Amino acid sequence: MNQKIYDEGYADGQELQAGEVKRLEEENQSLCEQIAQGAERISDLVAKSSDLAQELDDMRLRAITAEGRLSAAKESILIRDQRYERLTKELNGLRQAIDSHIEGNLTETYRDHVNGRNVAHELYEDIEALRKLIEPKE
Length: 138
What we know:
Elements: H1 18-134
């Protein structure tokens, strides 16, 4: 059974034998199966690509959320730093006021102490003078 098949490969009109036709049909079948497997593989890759795209979107959302939390944390730290600076200034002011008050009290206490010593010395001199007046003279 000779069949004439004309295609690009046999444009010169060569006759193909039935065995060769069968071989070409099997080769064609094999190529069709490979194409089907390739299409299935492409479908799997498209599905994986879709999954990866969804995962990427999820990561972007998490990154945006993390960026928002980071921004809030930075703002909170800035507010704490400003509060710390304000409290440090207030504390330094209080320290200066306390130091001034203590210095004033120490100065006043020292003055009182000196005055007390002067008064005590004057009293001692007065007592000695009185003692000399009261003591019998020998």
